[in-house]
Design brief:
- With 235 residues, the protein is an alpha/beta fold.
- The N and C termini lie far apart (40 Å).
């Protein structure tokens, strides 16, 4: 008998993370909704319940090592395995008008704490669980703003953190190449979320489509890639 798949989505109390929880739960996957703010996380979990969608809420601050370890303990004790990790938690600490000369190391550090070190911590803790089970799908929420092939000025903290996240994807993919643990980066496009703003040209559902595709890849699916709209894009 096949065990039900378990998914963890970080930064999931709104926007793309929340929609990813909704769509994964509709696929009969047990979804753990992680968010830093407990009250917001519990509130949206209740909102999903009203829609007939059941998720499990657990507090998670990806910048806090103890919080990440508590999540790993919860998953191990409660389920014994994790099949899908969506590293969605992310921040945009730049004033968009700031260039590389006006920004500060502190702003870069803040971006790295959430956008790079957070996913790194989670990958380090959960990948061993996945390799033991010989199954894992990891989705790193990146951005076209982190593409070296299309790098512009402005927003140095956000851009460099997403470029670094892409490097992390490549590193782990190579170290996992003989396993059934697949890890990929993706860009959701410009999506109407709190971060993207209301002028963005994509709905949350459109932004989430590639998340769900990568989270449910078949065993011969890609790993170590960068995708938008299910298509590879340059690094």
């Amino acid at each position: 008998m096949m065990t039900q798949k378990i998914a963890l989505v970080t930064g999931a109390n709104r926007g793309i993370g929340l929609e990813a929880c909704r769509q994964l739960a509709k696929l009969n996957i047990t979804v753990i909704l992680g968010s830093r703010d407990s009250s917001k996380g519990q509130q949206v979990s209740r909102q999903l319940e009203k829609e007939g969608i059941s998720v499990v809420y657990h507090q998670l601050d990806v910048t806090n090592e103890e919080s990440v370890k508590q999540m790993e303990s919860f998953v191990r004790d409660q389920y014994g395995h994790l099949d899908i990790l969506v590293n969605n938690a992310g921040i945009f600490p730049d004033n968009p008008m700031k260039n590389a000369f006006d920004s500060t190391v502190d702003i870069l550090r803040t971006a790295m704490e959430t956008n790079l070190y957070g996913p790194f911590r989670l990958c380090q803790l959960f990948i061993p669980m996945m390799t033991k089970n010989n199954y894992g799908r990891i989705v790193n929420m990146s951005s076209g703003m982190g593409q070296l092939s299309d790098m512009n000025g402005g927003c140095p903290a956000y851009r460099t953190s997403k470029t670094a996240l892409n490097a992390l994807t490549r590193l782990f993919a190579d170290e996992l190449k003989d396993t059934n643990v697949l890890i990929n980066s993706m860009c959701p496009g410009w999506v109407r979320t709190d971060m993207g703003g209301q002028n963005a040209d994509r709905s949350v559902e459109e932004g989430v489509d590639t998340v769900i595709w990568l989270a449910t890849l078949p065993n011969d699916g890609p790993s170590g890639g960068f995708f938008r709209d299910r298509q590879p894009i340059p690094w």
